Amino acid sequence: MSSTTSLIKKVEEQFELPNAAQEFIKKSVQYVGIPMLGILVFLFLWSVAAKNIDTSLGKFPGPSVVMEQFGSLYEEHQASREKEEAFYERQEARNAKRMEADPDYVPKIRAYTGKETFLDQIFTSLITVMSGFLLAAIIAIPLGIAIGLNKTLNTAVNPIIQIFKPVSPLAWLPLVTMVVSALYTSSDPLVAKSFLNSMITVTLCCLWPMVINTSVGVASIDSDLVNVSRVLRLPAIKHVQKIVLPASIPMIFTGMRLSLGIAWMVLIAAEMLAQNPGLGKFVWDEFQNGSSDSLGRIMAAVIVIGFIGFLLDRAMLQIQRIVSWDKSSASR
């Protein structure tokens, strides 16, 4: 009996994986296997549904059609870059000939004005959303800290916040467009008016979540920490730097993540509505185009919009992990 037991133990030891390998397999299944399974199920359901949906432009695009459009969009981008290079080469050659004939000639280089490609519009939207988001953070975080520290200021400002918070950011777009057109009248503008319109609209939609979450985070600081600051007689700036900011970072970043997610959605809608350059305009142009490839291109843009939104949220979460003392607050 004892010999049988020992034999079983030897077999178990022979085939038993080390703890490190078991942990690796467990994490691989949890973080890679299960998400991949979910994606595969989604792609299968998408393919089945696409085959059974007929539109005025043909079949609804399935995964394979969308992948083809990604390749087509990239090829168009490459072709556009080649045209741009050829455009500047022709100007340089022409200017060189003019300077040979007339040494006093001042060469002029005209900017390339070709149509923005899909990749160009992705970068345009990213620059716009990050510009509006950073401007909102510069305004909202100090304001939220001040409101959280001062009950009187909170009482004064809170009604204004509660009135404007429910307003759709797109309702601001016509007003922003009119104000920018009236005030930004430079003959040689540094940035385009369309960029300012979209950026300010993004800023307005980012303000409220950041202000509210920052003020709540500051107001809910542990009283023991406040008492320590009073005992040490920290100046106001030191109190904010050493006590307020570290303790309220989780709430501040919650507001920033909410704001960035809302900003990305609002920007796409604003670009569609105002026909400002970016991914939203690309989607609207393809819808108006009505070609056989339009649905596939729109679906490709939808996937890119969602993927970029996911990456922006993960980037904010990673920054929170770096700057926050409470690492568990950034675990989701």
Rough shape? globular
| Unreliable residue runs | none
Give the number of DSSP strands. 2
Main sheet, how many strands, which sense, barrel? 2 strands, antiparallel
Mean pLDDT across all residues, rounded? 86
Helical content band: over 70%
First-to-last CA distance: 52 Å
Give the topology string: H per helix, E per strand. Answer: HHEEHHHHHHHHH
How much strand content do the residues show? under 5%
- CA gyration radius, whole angstroms: 28 Å
> What order do the strands of the largest sheet run in, or round the barrel if closed?
1-2
Q: How many alpha or pi helices?
A: 11
Structural class: mainly alpha
Structural overview:
With about 325 residues, the chain is mostly helical. Helices cover about 80% and strands about 0% of the residues. The chain contains eleven helices and two strands; from the N terminus they run ααββααααααααα. It has helices at about 1-15, 20-50, 65-100, 120-150, 150-165, 170-185, 195-220, 225-230, 235-275, 280-290, 295-325; strands at about 55, 60. The chain has a two-stranded antiparallel sheet with strand order 1-2. A hairpin with a 2-residue loop joins β1 and β2 (about 60). α3 packs across α11 and α6 (about 170-185) packs across α7 (about 195-220). The longest helix has about 40 residues, at about 65-100. It is globular. It starts with a helix and ends in a 9-residue tail after the last helix. The model has no long low-confidence stretch (mean pLDDT about 85).
